[in-house]
Structure formats: structure tokens, C-alpha cells
Amino acid sequence: MTQLDKHVGLAHGNGGRFMRELIEDVFARELGNPQLDTRADAVPLPWDSDEGVLVYTTDGFTVQPLEFPGGDIGSLAVHGTTNDLAVAGATPRYLSLNVFIEEGLDIELLRRVIASLGRAARESGVVVACGDTKVLPRGQGGGLYLATTGIGVRPHELELGIERIRYGDRILCSGPIGAHGIAVMLAREQFGLRGDLASDAASVLPLTHAVRSFAGLRFMRDPTRGGLATVMHEIARGTECGIRLSEAAIPVQDPVRAVCEMLGYDPYYLACEGRVVAVAAPDTAERILVEWRALPEGGQAAIIGTVTAGVPRVVLETSIGGERFLEELEDDPLPRIC
Amino acid sequence: MTQLDKHVGLAHGNGGRFMRELIEDVFARELGNPQLDTRADAVPLPWDSDEGVLVYTTDGFTVQPLEFPGGDIGSLAVHGTTNDLAVAGATPRYLSLNVFIEEGLDIELLRRVIASLGRAARESGVVVACGDTKVLPRGQGGGLYLATTGIGVRPHELELGIERIRYGDRILCSGPIGAHGIAVMLAREQFGLRGDLASDAASVLPLTHAVRSFAGLRFMRDPTRGGLATVMHEIARGTECGIRLSEAAIPVQDPVRAVCEMLGYDPYYLACEGRVVAVAAPDTAERILVEWRALPEGGQAAIIGTVTAGVPRVVLETSIGGERFLEELEDDPLPRIC
């Protein structure tokens, strides 16, 4: 019996195998009910509006440092939750906000973060409808943690889900991967590295709204914790299909690639906070590519792989003509990335 | 300029003046919108079901220790949020759950807490529809923090609110106050006290459902952080009326009174987690008293005071015939009580 069988470790929070097993073993078992789909980004509620069905999602935020190039924990707390609604095909409408503040936090820093949260909410068209604050004694809080829960509206006719994916479907990514993970890491002083790289943290609503009604679109997800590889594993597990990705086709910015090579990270496991992965029938994938590339958020969108028959593994065709398996994430070099 | 002007202190989380000012100054200012009523327990959303209008609320939980006589952080996370919906007159239907786990937490303890949360949810008739977990590095988490956001349904015809309170209305309390605060405090080893006292933490739904449709019921609230006195101050501020309470009428259990006298606490500021304060027209108050006393949760319910004309202060008529002002809470001897 290992340590991780008896005590929670950082690997239980990284989006990979340990986290999935903890959620299945503790949360799904104790809270199990037909509505709690632990693999869904957002769940439908049994209420309709004129515009569609209400959907519900929640996310917690612990990023360190609280402000980083390209964003801060406040804007991230809006984008993280509204993006989960967006990839479910919904339009975000309301957020609730939980704030856990460590005693001693600078009030001006708190004000900047909450102002940033307010701006991101207005830009994303969501209203912060209710909130709660708790103050944690010094040494028990890591500065600031946020949680946001979102309600959105999904058009009635929209049907997206892993179960709709078929052999031969194409996999798209809306832009370069891993910039959020590397930007946050570089902003931590202990790494002693500095760069111009900014997080990709942003609303993905323009991307999802542009294509959500396309027939042939099967599924969308934002590759956050655990990165692109983790979304690919969810698809492989959910479909029992294989996944083939082309290393040459996956967009990665040069500075991300450089830091990964220097520190031994694999960009496919790094968090993005403003990208969409979509799975679509081949002709629909081409249409999505055209739509996305015409948007400022999608200029570097690419078709990066294919859903295949065969064993549910994630295979990367390398740039030099080889193959390697992308395994499910187990350890995580980067805690508090989101 | 004091320390509390520049840095967040524990008093910013206690339900009293500093917390109110921080919420007004930072959160209401940066997130302000017509929906965000920072004084409401639950806010209406612009959607209806056959049974009523949807209402929304959220709460965070940081209680220490995680398990205490009469409850634990899991059941508290259900009762805290469903009680906010209940006192708004609503029937709770769905919860989202955010879990912040500190590295090193015993997985069996986590399982007990989540199992307790599941039981409380089933007993309260709510479904946990979505969730998120984050793991915090050792030393940055205080064990476990939870946040729950709830959606409930409030009958269309129901109209409750501070603004409906009138001179001469009576104030009721559904049971003895302060047991939660004292039970949690005694469960902390550093106090070196032990007692049989259990927290009052429980669902207040039976109490609110029994009376929510009574004409003449103006307002209900659960006196959690900051206790009874803090709810009285909210009413005084919201109505610009005075409040007169009768010390002899306010139910307080003997062990709570004894610990308060020993340690110099005032029971009127201690958290309850299973009580309702209601304000109603005099004849309605008598009807509520009869209803509540017939319920197991309300056997010690009492009419404890009156809304008066005059300056918005909270006056306690003492048992020996004197008067004292209950001031708005400033400092808090008990952090992490909820």
C-alpha cells in the first residue's frame, strides 16, 4: 500500500489517474446519483428557458502567484467556469463566487483581483449573482482561493458528448498549447526564469459560439489541468477508440517548447486556459478550421489528429516519423497551476 | 490608518462590521449589478419552474476541527447552503460542490466527511449535480475547505424581505442559540475544555416549510456567523427601526451559558447552524410559535423581541430589568467556526 492510498497527495489534484480514481472512489461513490456525471464539464438541470435548457458547472482556483503574465486568479475564475459552460455549447449567464482569503492578504491586491474578475465577467456577459467570503487564519490559506459556480443556457437542439464520437472523426485544437502552465511557472520566483510568455487564459466563447450549431460537431472540451493529453485520454476511455495525434500538427509556441526542453516537461500535459479541443466529422472539421482561423482567438487553430479503431490508447506520431504513447498523467510537476 | 485598512484580518470574516465594510468596499463596488444584493441569503434568477422561481445562493466552509460533536464540515456544507435557500422560502433542489484538500489529508477522514455530506444531501432532498476538487500543497490548506452553491425553487406568491418589516412586528427564534459556536470551540483541543454539548447544525427546512406561506410573515434568516445580534443589526440597518429583545425570552442552553460566562463570550454573537429567526406581524407570530413548538426542531421556539419605532439600535432588556445595547460585532474570538 503506497502513501497515496492513505493520504491525499498533490497528484490527486493534477487531472490524471490519481485524481480520477479519488473522484470515482470517494466522491462518485458517496454522492452518486444520475445527475452527477463526474466526467462532464457541465450538467443539464431540469429547467428550460426560451433559449434552451439550463446547465450547471463549478470550478475552484488556487493558482500561485495570484497575478501572472496574461491574467490573475480573478479573471481565471471567470474564464475557467464560463469556458466549461462554453464547451458544453452553452451561453454563460450567472456566476456565484466563493472567496477564501488568508489573513494578512494585501487589500489592494484583493481589490485588483476582484476588479479583474468583474471586468472578465462583464466581457463574458455573466453576472455575479451571489457570493460568500471566508477569512482563513494566517498560515492556513495560501493567500487566496476562489470558487465559481456557473449557470448557462444551452440551445435545445444541441447535442454534444463523448458518446457521439465515431471512428474517423477529426480532432481540432483552437491554438497553441501549454502557454498557461509555462507562464504561471515562470512567474514563480523559485524557478529563477523570466520570459515574455503570457498565459493563454481567455474566454473561449467566441470559438464555441462560432461552431456549436454545426452538424457533425461531436464534442468540445477545454484542456486545462492535465492538458491536451488528459482530454485525449478521456476521449479514448469514453469511446474505447484509439487516438492518433500528429506532433507536427500540434501548435506549440517556441518559448513553451524551449522551456519544456530545458526543464524536461512534456507540453501535452501542460494546462491551457483559453483553448478548445473539438472532435468532429472530417468535413465538419474542415468547416470548423475555417471558422476558427478567421477569429482572433483561433488564428493558429489546427486539425491535430484522428479517432481510430483499435485499442483505446493515445499515440503521438513524432515529427521524425516515429510513434510514442502518451500515457495517462500520474505525477505533476506543477501544483497550483489553476 | 489601522492594520485592517491595508491587510485582511480575521475580523473581516466574522459577519460583523469589518466584513460588511470589506464586502461593500471591494466586492459590491467591483462586481456591483442589480442582481448582486450583498445582504440577501438567496437571489432570484430570471427563470421559472411550475413550482416557482429559481433562487441561487452560495457558502464556503472552513470549520476546524473538521468533525465536531453534532456534525462535520460535510453535513455543514449541505445545511449551510440549503438553510440559506430555506429561509428565503425556497425548496432546495441542486448543489454544486467545491473541495479544496490539503496534501496529506487522511483519505478515510475525507471519505467520512463526503459520506456525511451525501447523507445530509439525501435527507434534505438535494442532489449534488457537479463538483470540482483541488489539492493544496502541504501547509497551504488547513486540511479541507468546502464550498457549496445551491439552486432552489421558491413559490411564486411568496414575498419575504427585510423591506416588508413594520413597527410592532414580533421577532421569533426557533430554538436555543449559540450551541454550534460553543460545541466547535470545545472540540478544539487548545481550549482544554470538554463537554457533552452538541452543535445545533441541522436542516431548518421543516421549520421554514411549516410557516413560509403564512400571511404576515415578513422575513426569515438563519443566524450563523455573528449570531443573533448580527441578524438583529441587519434588520435595524435595513428597516431603520429599533429592535428590543428580552434577555429572559431568548433560549440559551445551560452549558452554553456556563461556557460563555467562564470565557467571557456573549451568546448573542455565537454562530447557530440550525436555527431560524423570523419577523412577523403579532398575530402571525403567535401562529408561527404554535407551529414551530409542535415540531421536534422547534420545541423551544420563543418570541424574543419586537421591532420598534425610533433609532436603529439593538436594545437588550436584561433579566434584572436593565437595558444594554448589543453593538455590531467588531472582533471575533472564534475563527473557522463555519
Strand-helix topology:
The structure is a homodimer of 338-residue chains.
Chain A lengths: L2 H4 L10 H15 L11 E7 L2 E10 L5 E2 L2 E2 H15 L3 E12 L4 H18 L2 E10 L7 E11 L15 E4 L5 H8 L18 H7 L5 E5 L5 H13 L2 E5 L7 H10 L13 E4 L1 H12 L8 E7 L5 E4 L5 E3 L13
Helix pairs in contact in A: 3-4
What does this structure look like?
2 copies of one chain form a homodimer. The first copy, chain A, is α+β, with helices and mostly antiparallel strands. Chain A folds into 2 domains: 39-154, 2-Layer Sandwich (60s Ribosomal Protein L30, Chain: A); 162-325, Phosphoribosyl-aminoimidazole Synthetase, Chain A, domain 2, CATH 3.90.650.10. Helix content of chain A is 30%, strand content 25%. Chain A has helices at 3-6, 17-31, 73-87, 107-124, 179-186, 205-211, 227-239, 254-263, 282-293; strands spanning 43-49, 52-61, 67-68, 71-72, 91-102, 127-136, 144-154, 170-173, 217-221, 242-246, 277-280, 302-308, 314-317, 323-325. In chain A, the strands form 3 sheets. A 7-stranded mixed β-sheet of chain A has the order 9-11-8-12-10-13-14. In chain A, strands 1-2-7-5-6 form a 5-stranded mixed β-sheet. In chain A, strands 3-4 form a two-stranded antiparallel sheet. In chain A, strand 13 (314-317) and strand 14 (323-325) form a beta hairpin. In chain A, helix 3 packs parallel to helix 4 (107-124). The model of chain A has no long low-confidence stretch (mean pLDDT 93). The interface between A and B is large, with 77 and 77 residues.
